[in-house]
Specification:
Blueprint lengths: L1 E9 L2 E10 L2 E7 L3 E8 L1 E5 L4 E4 L4 E4 L2 E8 L6 E9 L1 H7 L6 H4 L9 E4 L3 H15 L6 H17 L5 H7 L9 H8 L6 H8 L3 H12 L3 H19 L4 H7 L5 H12 L3 H10 L1
Antiparallel strand pairs: 1-2, 2-9, 3-8, 4-7, 4-9, 5-6, 5-8, 7-10
Helix pairs in contact: 3-4, 7-8, 9-11
Length: 283
């Protein structure tokens, strides 16, 4: 549930956003021709792209290139209210603020990283930048278009200058080049994630009915049956090869409720998870 939402716009587009929300909450994002920077002021989340996922902790950020994403904010013992700041990058806006001449790293898309998402580690420079944005969210009367242009250029320069590995520069260069992936890559990357079919269809950029048809064509069985079987088979292996608690195994295999996991496991293997572990270890 969103508790507070503030936005600063430039050229009639929301560029800077501040959001306070109550976790747990899943926030989908469809970015056909934009990229986005998200900074976790408070709280934790897991950001899913079509074929990857990334944990986001407090005072960390991610940059996501154009595509579909799902940001799952987590409720923790210490944190129920989460706060995030998002900065949106639009090609037409960038061209305007750079006087129609983009920096070289936006135009040089050779040898770019295939990843559609990259983490930005916490740093003093980044925290100072975020604090400066917080000031303007609290004092919107001081905000002008020229100021927003400067703040947008500033975050891009900050991301490039603090990127020691070069991966962020490569990602920025390919911000508006969609990542290519197959349907199978999408499925196999998310088999053990606790995502609904509707959320997987959103990540793939299709309707739920189209997603189900494609799944049947590729796998020759229903998605529900396929995911359930894969998750339970993995759980059976973990029961024998690890000392993890049953609740941890259920979560790691993509089940949100232990009771549902136990019932499903019994239906497939004819016994409870604890009995399965005990009986197999005795053999």
């Amino acid at each position: 549930m969103i508790k507070e939402h503030l936005q600063l716009s430039l050229y009639d587009k929301g560029i800077f956003e501040r959001v306070v929300l109550k976790a747990p909450m899943k926030a989908p994002g469809v970015m056909k021709n934009e990229a986005c920077f998200i900074y976790a002021v408070a709280g934790e989340s897991v950001v899913f792209s079509a074929v990857s996922e990334m944990k986001l902790n407090t005072e960390e950020a991610v940059v996501m290139k154009c595509g579909n994403f799902l940001n799952a904010w987590l409720k923790t013992v210490d944190q129920e209210l989460c706060e995030a700041i998002a900065i949106h990058f639009y090609p037409d806006v960038l061209k305007k603020i750079y006087d129609k001449e983009l920096p070289e790293f936006f135009k040089s898309i050779k040898n770019v990283e295939p990843s559609s998402i990259a983490k930005v580690k916490s740093s003093t420079l980044l925290k100072n930048y975020i604090n400066s944005l917080q000031f303007y969210f609290k004092n919107p009367d001081l905000v002008t278009d020229e100021l927003l242009k400067l703040k947008l250029k500033e975050v891009i320069l900050l991301l490039v200058k603090t990127d020691t590995s070069g991966s962020m520069k490569q990602l920025l260069a390919s911000l508006f080049t969609p990542s290519e992936y197959s349907f199978k890559e999408l499925i196999e990357a998310n088999v053990f994630n606790n995502l609904s079919l509707e959320e997987l269809a959103m990540l793939h950029g299709v309707s739920l009915s189209s997603f189900k048809r494609e799944f049947k064509r590729v796998y020759n069985e229903s998605p529900g049956r396929y995911f359930k079987t894969r998750k339970l088979n993995r759980a059976a292996k973990l029961l024998l090869s690890t000392n993890e608690r049953i609740s941890e195994i259920a979560f790691n295999c993509g089940f949100s409720e232990v009771a549902h996991f136990s019932n499903s496991f019994h239906d497939q293997f004819g016994c409870s998870p604890s009995s399965y572990r005990l009986n197999q270890n005795r053999k």
